[in-house]
Amino acid sequence: MANSGGTKPKSSRKNSWKQNPQAVQENILRVAQEVFAKNGLSGARVDEIAAMTETSKRMVYYYFGDKEGLYRRTLEEAYRKVRQKEVDLDLDHLDPRAALERLIRFTFRHHSENPDFIRLVMIENIHHGTYLAQSATIRDMNRGAVDQLERILKRGRDEGVFRQDADPLTIHWQISAMSFFNVSNRATFSLIFGDRLNSATGQRQLEDWAVETVLRPVVVDPRPSDQG
Amino acid sequence: MANSGGTKPKSSRKNSWKQNPQAVQENILRVAQEVFAKNGLSGARVDEIAAMTETSKRMVYYYFGDKEGLYRRTLEEAYRKVRQKEVDLDLDHLDPRAALERLIRFTFRHHSENPDFIRLVMIENIHHGTYLAQSATIRDMNRGAVDQLERILKRGRDEGVFRQDADPLTIHWQISAMSFFNVSNRATFSLIFGDRLNSATGQRQLEDWAVETVLRPVVVDPRPSDQG
DNA sequence: GACCAAATTAACCATCTCGTACAATTTGAT
DNA sequence: ATCAAATTGTACGAGATGGTTAATTTGGTC
Question: What percent of chain A stands above pLDDT 90?
């Protein structure tokens, strides 16, 4: 009966509306993510967000206080969704080598398929992490990502397939760097060097390269996949 | 006699000033770079830029037309300076292995020491490369970077120390990814995972890691430095 | 069905910000 | 002497923009 999905809260008729606070907030956040991701914090216009919503500008301020409050909540939601997917990966039952490769491929593809999330993180970095600093929940969520990787590396060390001195944080940094840069700098990179690496085959090639460059220094036997 | 450097164009005395269009423009551009890098294109205020200048707002519009024109010129200047330093590196006389390592270390350190440049590129990517697309000179300058790398790789192949299938554009992409991400995501990364990798030793460690992860897949004999 | 807090609507305001107009003076080259 | 280019200084207007005031509707409760 009730809209269990995320469908439109109201049929946009002016009079005769139903109360649905949750759906209204979700609607606003969805639009806000899109607009903030496209234009940045200062570039985004509250009026534009409101106009794209099924509700009114007043509601935006009613639920989120001000523009920065809306931005903060948008950022939180974006991180929450990403982290959820990472947890669902369930890598602990795979053998370490396969688990690591799968984590890399997942991260690379996930970032590639969610440019809006990447852009929000870029924007947040432009603002020196001011708003992430205000959200303890985001920080706590993300630390789990390195814990997950650390477990994989430890299992690998114990089985003798990974090097002893492989640092989880550094590996995570490297995976993030390539996966993130691949999306964040697409515009300038493509403009300068052409979009060969941005094509379907190019992206596959980069993903393989990411796997290889991460695994080679970590795996004891340097034979990541089908290299001769 | 004339100020051959980039010193202040006027002694800020109201009357009795010298004509020095070049110095005035340089002064404006220097301030603009600082403010745009700090606040982004939409976040930057023309009035603030003008106030920090040795000259007036009127002059900003006199020389650069409008805010976007100033931003475009700022971006051009930033790229120009970077590219100049890359050319000065003069890697063609080093043996391939050393040349590649030096290029990686230079890029990593240079980006690290010039966060404002990184931030301008981030901002430009937020704007989908709109302004870089308008500047053919920037594109031409930067393509040279891959040519330089390609020469190194070719020499390495010919000498039998590099693999045959090493792709210059992919290697450049990888070097850029780590060097860029290291600066661009400092704020969020440090907030979430602590600033261990951001310390002096952490940065040295990452630089070494960048060298290792790039060289290992490229060099035929997988022994990048002093690994046992 | 009266009542009230939460939800929602529509019009409104204060301010910021880009860019310009106006009015002049100074420089430097010919 | 002359004149265009360079520079100063101020004030201001139009429109964009973040945020608010005031009034209405809903839905649950007694």
Answer: 75
